[in-house]
Design brief:
Layout (H helix, E strand, L loop, with lengths): L3 E8 L5 H18 L3 E2 L2 H4 L19 E9 L5 H7 L2 H16 L9 E8 L6 E8 L2 H5 L1 H19 L5 E7 L2 E2 L4 E3 L24
Helix pairs in contact: 1-4
């Protein structure tokens, strides 16, 4: 997949770090490397809208563990990039990553894992963040298709409306997502505890 690089990230408690990294190494790392997708160097990854908390603490202050992938795209080719990214081996690897992370974390009835799929395009384009809480195996089964459709919807919205902020965020709930993006200047401003997102039915407008 030429022109793609990545960074893997997580948010949670320090004792979860090794479990997240093991899950990533076993399920996605080798596939990405074999597909020619290398970890992004700092010159690519240090973007002002992506200010992650780099210090691992005993308590991250959130009840929901967050894991995700940021993909950096050298040149955007519309939904063609999404088709390449979400091919079958990647789908299975991503499902395995989330499944292992969930099975190795002591979750209460109210806790879950939030997966974030982030695509950073060339300068002048907004960064798109797709959020999905994985609470049950049913959620896991539709994980990758929901994320791909949400990215496609986000791109269609940008094509029709333009860039409105550094980050356009869409949240998937029960297979549906908010039609209009939530707008942020930085990914750290996404508050996973207090968010209330209006969820509507999907509405796709094909690109001309």
């Amino acid at each position: 997949m030429e022109g793609l690089s990545y960074r893997f990230f997580f948010g949670g408690q320090s004792h979860q770090l090794i479990r997240f990294l093991d899950a990533f190494d076993e399920n996605l790392s080798s596939h990405l490397k074999n597909s020619g997708v290398e970890e992004a160097d700092d010159a690519v990854a240090n973007r002002p809208e992506l200010t992650f908390e780099r210090k691992v603490t005993a308590d991250a202050g959130v009840s929901t563990a967050v894991i995700g992938l940021v993909f950096f795209v050298a040149s955007w080719a519309g939904n063609h990039i999404l088709d390449e990214l979400f091919e079958e081996k990647f789908k299975e690897g991503l499902k395995g990553l989330i499944s292992k992370a969930r099975n190795n974390i002591k979750l209460s009835r109210t806790e879950s894992i939030e997966y974030r799929s982030v695509i950073c395009k060339p300068e002048g384009h907004p960064t798109v963040v797709i959020r999905l809480n994985v609470e049950t195996d049913h959620t896991l089964s539709g994980l990758t298709d929901s994320i791909k459709f949400a990215h496609a919807h986000a791109e269609n919205w940008i094509a029709a409306n333009g860039k409105k902020a550094e980050i356009h965020c869409h949240t998937i709930v029960n297979g549906q997502c908010n039609l209009e993006p939530e707008l942020y200047s930085n990914i750290k401003d996404i508050d996973i505890r207090n968010r209330k997102t209006e969820v509507r039915n999907w509405s796709f407008v094909p690109r001309v």
